[in-house]
TrEMBL record:
This is GDP-mannose 4,6-dehydratase. The gene is gmd. It comes from Yoonia algicola. Belongs to the NAD(P)-dependent epimerase/dehydratase family. GDP-mannose 4,6-dehydratase subfamily. Its EC number is 4.2.1.47. One of its GO terms (biological process) is 'de novo' GDP-L-fucose biosynthetic process. InterPro entries: GDP_Man_deHydtase, NAD(P)-bd_dom, NAD(P)-bd_dom_sf. Catalyzes the conversion of GDP-D-mannose to GDP-4-dehydro-6-deoxy-D-mannose. CDD domains: GDP_MD_SDR_e (cd05260). It comes from the Bacteria.
Length: 373
């Protein structure tokens, strides 16, 4: 029987990969997109189906996680077998700037969906996936972090997500809802938002290599993360909802790297070696050698990274490392793509765009401005 899924956050990184996966599996996929003053569906445009086509299996609805009646109406119309709650104000640094909005979307938004399922009497039919996060561990209490590790959130984002984590469990225990938390560690891809650290680096260095930007300004480059590929992680989101019993799972690679490592890998993909010198806010990265033709704008001695304290966070999560043993043992899930392979893919994609922009610039045409991130 054809299954129907509803995805919040379908226009985001994970939403777009998950929609692809579910369409491949024969699902009818409904997604909630926000109204914006300009187009915001770039990540799903390639799977968009004209609504005038008969039996279209992909449908977008205008909506917002802050709007209870809208969510309830969509849920009632769609009658989903599976709900994937991926929508969120997902930027940790921004959550310090907009804590109340973040709480509303990332915390109460989840409650609104859970209540809609209950209110509509869908609790026996609809399975629910909550996008929980390694940010719950924050100031880590145990390494590596697993499903039983105590939480210590360090940002308004993480505190809001903690509320959603417990609400998901509460609806499971109180109403027997099939509801799961995926506690996902950082995952990236060429579709990653431009202001998250990995994409900021791959996009920034590709632009610098092509002479489109002078320098990358970074925050805490000693921060340690367990980075995986979003494609691997959305597979696990689906797998969690196919089990006999709802449970929560850590999804991670079990390997940790620094932001500095990621800068070095990205540089290497562009044929560059770097030297780091100076300390703290005075640290810089200078080009040591250039090989190949990927960085025509650079020569040895160019400074391509500086520290800008504006990118330090009021409370930082210094280190995260996940233990995905439960996912491996119970579901047979293992990541297929390493962090370094993912970095190579991201640089290659960003270099293509940067080369296109460099060509336009050389020929006197307008190049999209890279706003600060
Ligand atoms: P993105 O930031 O790429 O996507 C977030 C999505 O949520 C976008 O579609 C966005 O819409 C939508 N959204 C934002 N605010 C609202 C709102 N008020 N109402 C409805 N939709 C909204 O995130 P990712 O794809 O990377 O992450 C998916 C989920 O997983 C998020 O909940 C995130 O917090 C969580 N997570 C992510 C991890 C990661 O490393 N990527 C790790 C752990 C958890 P728009 O396109 O219009 O902005
Ligand atoms: P994170 O991801 O906060 O872990 O949240 P992000 O890529 O933003 O930061 C990772 C680490 O890099 C450090 N950093 C910088 N970060 C950004 N964005 N910009 C910089 O210039 C910079 N310099 C250093 C950060 O301080 C941090 O330590 C992501 C999001 O996807 C969340 O939604 C998700 O829940 C978690 O991953 C798991």
């Amino acid at each position: 029987m054809t299954k129907t899924a509803l995805i919040t956050g379908i226009t985001g990184q994970d939403g777009s990969y998950l929609a692809e996966l579910l369409l491949e599996k024969g699902y009818v996929v409904h997604g909630i997109k926000r109204r914006a003053s300009s187009f915001n569906t770039q990540r799903v445009d390639h799977i968009y189906v004209d609504p005038h086509v008969d039996n279209a299996r992909f449908k977008l609805h205008y909506g917002d996680l802050t709007d209870t009646s809208n969510l309830t109406r969509i849920m009632s119309e769609v009658q989903p077998d599976e709900v994937y709650n991926l929508g969120a104000q997902s930027h940790v640094a921004v959550s310090f700037e907009a804590p109340e909005y973040t709480a509303d979307v990332d915390g109460i938004g989840t409650l609104r969906l859970l209540e809609a399922i209950r209110f509509l009497g869908l609790d026996k039919k609809t399975r629910f996936y909550q996008a929980s996060t390694s940010e719950l561990y924050g100031l880590v209490q145990e390494t590596p972090q697993r499903e039983t590790t105590p939480f210590y959130p360090r940002s308004p984002y993480a505190v809001a997500k903690l509320y959603s984590y417990w609400m998901t469990i509460n609806y499971r225990e109180a109403y027997g809802l099939f509801a799961c938390n995926g506690i996902l560690f950082n995952h990236e891809s060429p579709r990653r938002g431009e202001t998250f650290v990995t994409r900021k680096i791959t996009r920034g260095l590709a632009h610098i290599a092509q002479g489109l930007e002078p320098c990358l300004y970074m925050g805490n480059i000693d921060s340690l993360r367990d980075w995986g590929h979003a494609k691997d992680y959305v597979r696990m989101q689906w797998m969690m909802l196919q089990q006999d019993q709802p449970e929560d799972y850590v999804i991670a690679t079990g390997k940790q790297h620094s932001v500095r490592d990621f800068i070095n890998w990205s540089a290497a993909e562009l044929g560059l070696t770097l030297e780091f010198s100076g300390e703290g806010v005075d640290e810089v990265a200078t080009v040591a050698t250039v090989t190949g033709d990927m960085a025509p704008a650079l020569k040895a001695g160019d400074v391509i990274m500086r520290i800008d304290p504006r990118y330090f966070r009021p409370a930082e999560v210094e280190t995260l490392l996940g233990d995905p043993s439960k996912a491996k043992q119970q579901l047979g899930w293992e990541p297929q793509i390493t962090a370094q392979e993912m970095c190579a893919e991201m640089v290659a994609e960003d270099l293509k765009t940067a080369r296109r922009h460099a060509f336009l610039k050389e020929n006197g045409m307008d190049v999209p401005v890279a706003f600060e991130s």
